[in-house]
Design brief:
The protein folds into 2 domains: 6-174, 3-Layer(aba) Sandwich (Rossmann fold), CATH 3.40.50; 187-314, Histidine kinase-like ATPase, C-terminal domain (Heat Shock Protein 90). Helix content is 40%, strand content 23%. It has helices spanning 15-32, 42-52, 64-67, 71-87, 105-121, 139-148, 167-174, 196-207, 214-234, 277-281, 287-294, and strands at residues 6-12, 35-40, 59-63, 92-96, 128-134, 151-154, 157-160, 187-191, 239-246, 253-260, 297-303, 306-314. α5 (105-121) packs antiparallel against α7. Residues 6-150 form the MEDS domain.
Amino acid sequence: MNDSFTHRVLPYDGMDQLLDGALPFLHDGVDAGDRVLAVCGTARETLLRDALGPAASAVEFTDATAWYAHPSRTLADCLSDADDTAWQGRRLRVLGDPVWASRSPLEVAEWQRVEAVLNVAFRGTGASLLCPYAATLPAGVVAAARKTHPETVRGARALANPGFVDPWVFCEQCDREPLPAPPPGTDTFKIDRPDLFWLRAYVSEFARQTPLPEDGVQRLLVAVTEIVTNALRHGEPPIVLRMWTDAPDGRPGFVCEVSDGGRWPAGSGYGLIPPRPRAADSGGRFGLWAVRLLCSVVQIRTGDHGSVVRLRLDLPFSAEVNGA
């Protein structure tokens, strides 16, 4: 098995350019005996099947909407597939056509962050990922793709991408913009003692007055417990919890924020990389990574004026919320 990980962007303007880059990638994988996945919509699947001919039978087609449902879960699942395939002595090869339409700016930022950190997470897996980006996408999405992919594909050639940015530098750039201030009427609770039982009861009571479904309430309680525990152990007073609902860009959500007066140390990683199986076997806590799996979006800011962890869980589109 080839143990050299590759992550390439395929910019294209029209179906001919898409096929010029995608077909050699897929055919090479089939010929090498790789596990080959094509993640795309129905129209792209039909196009690729027709163009691949008999080789299409050796390609696993997966619906892009389901595949790209949640950034951290997609990253974890794909990394697990890469590790399992490598264990079998084969290479995972994925043509992944990202879903950008209908994404809110918050969601776009999270998926762009995943594109960056997978360059770290997948090292040593031998996997090969090719991500098509249409010229019709928003300019900012295409520009970010050149920062998060080490190589660009032109036809059958892969060229070093001069716009590539170190993954951790890219994440720092994502976090430079301050978070919007909580809206008026935000529920605020100062945490001055480590009583997690009453804290969970308080959060639960507030959350159940909103349209957050019961499974979301349970995920919220686990996530908040982890973040508050971290603030109590490693942060500095004052530790403050805030909760509200809003609907930026029309996407309603429940927001829970924990702030403290401390500053996170450099190299914390912010829970962006999935723990590998050996880490789980050792009994280590998954911490922030688990929080990212539980929430729709996790935003973290830290500096001389303290640290903030903002958790967001999506609400049903029909929900009426503050700021809607």
